[in-house]
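Contributing new complexes? Match this layout with 2-phosphoglycolic acid.
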Amino acid sequence: MTTSFAVTIHERFFVAGNWKMFKSPIEAMQYFEGDTLLDLPLDTVDVVLFVPDVYIYLLRRLAWQKGILLGAQDCSSEMEGPYTGEISPVMLRALGCDFVLAGHSERRRLFGETDDLIAQKTRAILGAGMTPVVCVGETAEERQAGQTFSTVERQLHAVLQVLNYDETNRILVAYEPVWAIGTGLNCSREDAEKVIYHLKELLYRLRYATEHFRTLYGGSVTRENVKEYAASNLIDGVLVGGASLHPKMFVDISVISRDARVALLSRTKRYPMEW
Ligand code: PGA
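Output block (do not edit by hand):
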């Protein structure tokens, strides 16, 4: 496959954990105890944990001591106002939050979030000085109907419509097929690469920007399969749900990613790859 844009292989791999709505406050703090997290390969891997909002302030020092950045799993599209129950991106930022997920499939599916709302949230997250991780992905039905590309394209397009060139360079995109989330059925590296390539190409067509653009894969990532993704020159990181709840598993995923990445980089320096 050849194309008119060069694929940038990011030297730093991105390993993110999504705790979803799990852990008591005590369990959340215990996660950072002991020496386990000291083995995170922070020289080559960026590590972020998306924790429940109410733990951000509680965990920020513990996370900082271990070189981990904190993210939120959702936020309001508004900065302030009469929106009972909502949490503003400005509030999250003030508590020590650096990243926010926008449009995770559980938000789209269970809480009816639309492409437009997710686009507004992405803008608000950037406006508050944080990095949005925009999640896209098709359902099993859409996949069977051959609509994988059109679905992710629609989802990303909605977000790009409200962002200018500089803002586009500041987002991360996570390709998370809905059928792979929490099912143990991870998407093959080849299929994930096809979709991610499509997303990068879309971005290039619309914005001529790909250099800073990082794309993650998420959906049943484990220490058994993460090597596949980290060894890909198109996949810039992973978003890990269930397996991020155990510090040892999360560290193992990060270490295996680092090793696969280092091997990829030394190979591509010798034999440059073309897409
Ligand atoms: P999973 O979740 O790794 O448990 O499949 C991924 C996610 O929801 O981001």
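Reviewers usually confirm one structural detail per submission. For this one: The radius of gyration is 18 Å.
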